[in-house]
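Exercise 7. Predict the joint structure of the components listed below.
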Amino acid sequence: MALDKPYKDIPGTTIFDAEQSRKGYHLNQFCMSLMKADNRVRFKADERAYLDEWPMTEEQKLAVLARDLNRCIAAGGNIYFLAKIGATDGKSFQQMAGSMTGMSEEAYRVMMIAGGRAIEGNRYLGESK
Amino acid sequence: MAHISASVYTSHVPAIGAALDLGKSHEPYWQKVFTGYEFSKEWFKKNTPDVIFLVYNDHANAFSLEMIPTFAIGCAAEFMPADEGWGPRPVPKVIGHPELAAHIAHSVIQDDFDLTIVNKMDVDHGLTVPLSLMCGQPQAWPCAVIPFAVNVVQYPVPSGRRCYNLGKAIRKAVESYDEPLNVQIWGTGGMSHQLQGPRAGLINKEFDQAFLDRLIADPDGLATMPHIDYVREAGSEGIELVMWLIARGAMKDSGLKVVHRFYHVPASNTAVGHLILENPS
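Solution:
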């Protein structure tokens, strides 16, 4: 019997469940390796060579090289792991979160100060705003 | 016998720690957050317990995907602040209480909650930011802390009901410890926030305020709220709020005194919620 995944109809949201975790295992473990300063230096010196040390898919590697966090998440990445890439790049969590919304950094910051993204229109896929 | 005197609930946004550590707390943006904790720091000075049982979640620091314990109790003598990729926070090491932690682990596991016992672990902002908010920036933390890490990173996370019942088992465990320790239980994380995908930045003030109301007055009803309501209404990372139910479950069912309540949007991507509840003496 299929598992119940009622969260599939939430717009703009990928729930990091066991299935995503399995897909993203090596991508996320690569991210964990960036917690060590030596590894951050090696990664920054030659990103492609460092990524090639990991049994990641080509899509995962390209998504990391492009710093496209939505693509990383679709490939099984989790934001708390991906944050290690952002830390290596000197990005704040707000810059990372904002980068996934299609908004400019400034527009995202202003939206948060104004109270954040409204829930109305953001509960279900296809819901009219 | 030991007893639980009070519970503290607070968000644990990493940017709050960074603002404190980098000396930005006087900036107007951060003042709006920190003013909500001025009362709390005074209260904590007058009500410093012997031990804090601190419920939080690790954010891919102590636990990678190699091992994902649902409930992990820190039984070590001390815990170092984790290097989360920016370098460790410049805060004191956390002194544990191995005797009480071992007692609670024994009792709670016998009550059918399968805890993972952790004897070596670094602690991340999920644990140290609440300590900074409540204690300021001391040279040493003013009491012992038992870290209790809950998996809220990989789904499915434990249900609200299970968390609430676990809190009750923790209460029973503390109350069966012979030494007359004053124990506080803290529940951290939340409130509404989403850090990923095009819906990032989601905030739901109505949900958050209702959650605070029900946590105080109707925790039993609140505990039945399914995961999907947290995720849909409070964002994918808003699910952290199940941890508040562990702390609430460890308190008396009713008759609590609401000592302090604060809510502010935003700190970085997140709605900051904060409560202090005291047990009737």
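Discussion. Chain B touches chain A through 45 residues (CB under 8 Å).
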